[in-house]
Amino acid sequence: MVIITHQREKCIGCNYCVELAYDRWRMSKKDGKATLIGGENKKGFHTTRVENEEFDPNKRAADACPVNIIKVKMI
Amino acid sequence: MRNKIELMAPAGGFDALQAALDNGADSIYFGVDQLNMRARATMNFTLGDLEEIAERCNERGVKSYLTLNAIIYNHDLSLIKTVINRVKEAGISAIIASDQAVIGYAKSQDVDVHISTQLNVTNIETVKFYSLFANVMVLSRELSLRQVKEICEGVVKEDVRGPNGELVKIEVFGHGALCMAVSGKCYLSLHTTNSSANRGACVQNCRRKYKVIDLEDGHELELDNEYIMSPKDLCTIDFLDQLADTGISVLKIEGRGRAPEYVATTIKCYREAIDSIANGTYSKELVKEWMSQLETVYNRGFWGGYFLGQELGEWTDSSGSKATVKKVFLGKGMHYYSKAKIGQFKIEAQQLKVGDSILITGPTTGVIETTIESMRVEDKDVDIAQRGSEVTFSIDQVIRASDKLYKVVPAEEIND
User: Do the Cβ atoms of B184 and B37 come closer than 8 Å?
Assistant: First the structure.
């Protein structure tokens, strides 16, 4: 199982996560920030649990994030 | 008699905004959320702050400009419409834009547009082109005084008018940071950390120290200990009369990422300088006084930028600021006894002594600078207020619980 967390408020809308992990991320047309698909908002931290096969693309997204607000953890 | 130059101040937060208003800015510029060139700065305003910004500025007859000058992607299109609609509702004076999507939508909504430095306007034909959309344009920072003058003269000679029917106003950067690249055309930050400077997320690689190594023989090249990619800061106060003579209408001060006391000091100096040019008292002695004041706040050393056509190579020799004084955090505001004009602060770090120069900053207060003549702790006169104590002293301006108290000390004291 993999946990992905996104501190959405700080997103600057660069689009990297969408390019690198398209199955898990979309740009919101509403506010121009990235949205974690399936994410549940807990006090500004959007979190979801996904299958192990999603680790690699999402780890690449986390590494590419210029404001370092994506965390990907294998549990 | 030429028209007086408009002095435009940076506002990275309410404290800097207030400092700009209190020190004589004619206009301020600021960013909200992510679509501006300081998106990384945590102190950006939000869309909900627009009314208060407009209100505080309108009270003083000061104009307010919102920067919306990042590169715009498809997914931003809806957000820019929201922002521009809110600008109109809240009564913000204009937006500063570079992307055609922003310029086009603002025009369609009758929101006044200023052309951003991101568009690097360097000639009169470009001014004519953007005059279809904008009343004010900032020129590229990489022009000489002569080039600026020719563009200003061209506006008059060719009668270049903006959408409001008046001659287009030409603006230049007068003070603050310069880029090693033509402003906004730098990709260093994007290549090293995916952080696009053109989306306001510059990590300022150019400000760091680098070695050049010859890979064939491994020799490290001597660089005279200079930061070869980091230009000194622009300062024009010592030739502001010549800059005014070019015919510019607006002087913009850079620094939305800088502290409120930086805004206070810089705006105060340039206000006095612009006024002195208008009334004929501008002099070398005054310039000397302003320079020493400007050196007290954040700077990388000064040079005249590209205006004077000096040879290249004005690189800074320090990694950070060369400010002659620094601030040390002491504590927070607690209460203001308005009848007695006494402020109460909690000392949370270091200690406060009688005779100390202090700085108080806050979102409503702006910036207050003064010296401690006497103070009291637990109803007794004291010379030193230790950490943990609650201290009171006389102060004419109102202080608030949201204020921070700093001690101002010479920079070398900290380095020792």
Answer: yes
